[in-house]
Amino acid sequence: MMLKENNTLKELDLWGCGLQPEGLEQVMKGVQANTKLEKLSLSRNIIDNKRASCLGMMLKGNTTLKGLYLSGCGLEPEGLEEVMKGVEVNTKLETLDLSGNIIDSKRASCLGKNDIIL
């Protein structure tokens, strides 16, 4: 995938693109290996639990992403938990937008484990 090898793109905004599950997985695989991307918006794309798990894995492997925008993605508590697993170990992420998703107290407490997120 071109995203994996791109050395110039710093921001990728896929807000409301209607990404299908397979396309979403490919984007996350590309972002995981990308070394320049700093901001990614997947807002208003449906992210099911399986793709949320991929998103968590992407966060564990990416070393440059500073902003991740997941507003209104329909994240369910189980999927959000998978994302939080990635947030817990990611040391570069500064901004995480989860607005418009259901976040219970258990998942919200995971945010406190990352010392960098604003």
Q: Can you describe this structure?
A:
There is one protein chain. This protein is of the alpha/beta class. Helices cover 42% and strands 10% of the residues. The chain contains 5 helices and 4 strands. It has helices at 2-5, 21-33, 49-61, 77-89, 105-111; strands spanning 11-13, 39-41, 67-69, 95-97. Strands 1-2-3-4 form a 4-stranded parallel beta sheet, with no helix packed on it. β1 (11-13), α2 and β2 (39-41) form a beta-alpha-beta unit. α2 packs parallel to α3 (49-61) and α3 runs parallel beside α4 (77-89). It is globular.
Number of strands: 4
Summed over residues and divided by their number, the pLDDT gives a mean of 88
List the uncertain runs: none
The number of distinct helices, counting runs of at least 4 residues, comes to 5
Q: Pairing-aware structural class of the strands and helices?
A: alpha/beta
Percent of residues in helices comes to 40-55%
> What does the largest sheet look like?
4 strands, parallel
Order of helices and strands: HEHEHEHEH
N→C terminal distance? 31 Å
Proportion of residues in β-strands = 5-15%
Summarize the structure.
With 118 residues, this protein is an alpha/beta fold. It is built from five helices and four strands, in the order αβαβαβαβα.
